[in-house]
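User: My advisor, Dr. K., asked me to get a structural model of this assembly before our group meeting. I'm new to this, so sorry if the format is off. These are the inputs:
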Amino acid sequence: MMTKKANLPGKAEASDKAVGRLVLYRKRLAGIPEDARRFIYSHEIGELCGVTSTQVRRDLMLVGSSGNPNRGYERRDLAQSIDEFLFEQRRQKVILVGVGNLGRAVLAYVSRRSPLLVIVAAFDSDPAKTGRVIMGYRCHAMTELGDLVDSQAIPTGILSVPVAAAQEVADRLVAAGIRGILNFAPVTLRVPHTVYVEDIDLAMALEKVAFFARHGRHVERMHV
Amino acid sequence: MMTKKANLPGKAEASDKAVGRLVLYRKRLAGIPEDARRFIYSHEIGELCGVTSTQVRRDLMLVGSSGNPNRGYERRDLAQSIDEFLFEQRRQKVILVGVGNLGRAVLAYVSRRSPLLVIVAAFDSDPAKTGRVIMGYRCHAMTELGDLVDSQAIPTGILSVPVAAAQEVADRLVAAGIRGILNFAPVTLRVPHTVYVEDIDLAMALEKVAFFARHGRHVERMHV
DNA sequence: GGATGTGAATAGGTTCACAGCG
DNA sequence: CGCTGTGAACCTATTCACATCC
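Assistant: The format is fine. Below is the predicted structure of the whole assembly, which you can bring to the meeting.
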């Protein structure tokens, strides 16, 4: 029998952390000047990212890239492989809900930094904002949210609304078929477990830092 | 012999993840109405935070709190214990460097949300900003940075300056004796390993979400 | 010689299972 | 009974060690 590929054997599944690091490698590679050396060693990538060289090589196994002993990895080629692995080279649409202080900062921050992700619309419930162009993005009324996500099959949403509205908006996003949410609202969202949620709570992040600032412990790095 | 307490036996060392969860528990406890039930079970905390009850109890062992079979944990008491563990109940000073879009959002976000952390000053290199009050915080010139951190023994700094300036500012913070940095600049900072750094790169976080949105995998939650 | 790629060993974190309590 | 507290089992992630290649 065995028609079900449950756990598709042979193909290694990328963990949350591994994906996080791959995104990081990709970003740091992009930061290297175009005219720098054509090849790069795993230990150099490691230094750039605060990761051991073994870890880098282990992660790169996932993308199926392949380096050359003695010369290392061809930079452009490697970047391409990682893009392929992460996004299949295709652009992916994103929407943002909640154009407050934080929402605006995110709009400003993300544009230009992620060429393979495009924010296609922003939403806010405040009538004073809807219709206007903010940080280069047109702000729509919340009523249009469901339709747009659904009709354009938007997979990813950024949630930067006040706590009070967060769960309700999340519900609407889920109902409209969203697959992943980057959540800045300080609340644990209830969503079906098919939807991936990454929470960023700035206050909590700061408290964690404050704790370890006092306790002077270890180095462990991971960019979100 | 055995004078060296290497690994100080008996006292469990809190891991990065455990601390993150404790911060989360504390935050969610704070969100419960004052007049709600006086006791709470580990499985209730777990539901509130998206964590298993075993995990909650395991983490609470670290703070040395103690629940009561049959009734659970006394809410106020527990919150107090966690505060004690995380911050020894004392207020801790924080500064912020870089009052751009993101810096402003962080200022607005953190104030009121972390009663035990107080932002004591903001800094920016733009003369148009220095001297003014932004989001309720007075903005100082960068020249005052080292002195203030040093003289007031500020342990924790928020870094929300442009990439180009990040490493230099980090160096100055370190020289002035900072112990922990919350870094929003999209660069891996080089700091002595006695300094704790937590990186938050919004673009990277979004890319991670976009990846898992396409790959529909697992639930794993962790609020930064 | 110094790098890659990777099985094997290790460390770290989570869940299980259950004793003990109220 | 259903909960807490916790040793032990388990599972995941990282590092080691080394065969292999240029």
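One thing worth pointing out at the meeting: Chain A has eight helices and nine strands.

User: Perfect, thanks a lot.
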